[in-house]
Design a protein that fits this description.
There is one protein chain. This protein has three domains: 83 residues, no CATH class; 66 residues; 56 residues, no CATH class. Strands 1-2 form a two-stranded antiparallel sheet. It contains nine helices and two strands, in the order αααααααββαα. Helix 1 packs antiparallel against helix 2, helix 1 packs across helix 4 and helix 5 packs antiparallel against helix 7. It is elongated.
């Protein structure tokens, strides 16, 4: 249901996906070859030559299988010209299309488990709060406090599911990550990370200072929320 929005579509197993990737890589190599031929073709001069015929063939071949080109680019990690790839390199590139299974298995399940836990926790608290019984279960209040950072954990794991799960692609079947890395130097990237770290450190210090201040101050003992609502005519006063 999650993968295909359908209850009947077959979900291929990993071995099958790997075999399909191998076929796609072979087609991709042909597309790469056609593209190189088109690129190498000289601008047309008068009269049709044998080279024109070859280019026309390459063009029609590229129109058929050009969408598989991305698979040939997967080989670029191992060989400069995908047409020179050995059988072993093709097999390796096909294996690369399967991300590390345990990482995905667990990050997805922990994220979903946390999601279910949040639904349960919210339901319980809604129920107790509606019946004004929140203060009867101090253990639950403790659980609630310890649950505060968990959505963050779920978000990070969701991000792992989405980003790690689509490797080795930036755009699935079209553009491999290895072909899309930017050419920024390590120094530039380091500088950006340090900038972010500094900015967010300042923000967390401000946030924490404000929070601690508010907690130290504590609630105003004279302030009764219900009295305020009544005074603002938002709820009728009790008889
Ligand atoms: C309740 C059960 C949940 C289910 C069934 C679920 C399902 C999914 C799925 C299928 C994806 C992958 C989407 C994709 O890229 O194709 C995903 C990604 C993600 N999930 Fe969950 N999730 C659940 C709970 C949560 C919770 C509780 C959080 C955070 C509080 C969360 C945060 C995320 C994030 C941040 C992503 C990455 C989105 C992106 O970058 O595209 N998920 N989730």
């Amino acid at each position: 249901l999650i993968g295909t929005r359908s209850l009947t579509t077959e979900i291929p197993g990993i071995d099958k996906l790997e075999a399909e990737a191998k076929d796609n890589i072979r087609q991709g190599i042909k597309a790469y070859d056609a593209l190189q031929k088109i690129r190498a073709a000289k601008p047309a001069t008068s009269g049709e030559t044998s080279q024109d015929v070859a280019t026309t063939e390459a063009r029609s071949s590229f129109e058929d299988i050009g969408h598989q080109l991305g698979y040939a680019l997967l080989l670029k990690r191992y060989v400069n010209d995908p047409r020179q790839a050995t059988e072993e390199q093709i097999a390796q590139a096909a294996r690369d299309t399967i991300p590390h299974v345990p990482t995905l298995f667990w990050s997805f399940r922990i994220m979903v488990g946390l999601g279910m836990f949040f639904i349960l926790l919210t339901t319980v608290f809604f129920w107790l709060s509606a019946r004004r019984q929140l203060d009867r279960y101090p253990l639950l209040l403790r659980v609630a406090v310890f649950a505060i950072p968990l959505p963050w954990v779920a978000i990070e794991l969701g991000w792992v599911v989405a980003e790690f799960g689509r490797q080795p692609w930036i755009i699935e079947g079209v553009l491999p990550t290895a072909a899309a890395v930017s050419n920024l130097g390590a120094g530039t990237v380091l500088l950006t990370i340090l900038g972010f770290a500094a900015l967010y450190t300042v923000l967390i210090v401000i946030e924490m200072t404000l929070m601690i201040k508010a907690i130290r101050k504590g609630p105003d003992p004279d302030e009764k929320p219900e009295a305020k609502l009544i005074s603002e005519n938002l709820v009728p006063a009790a008889e």
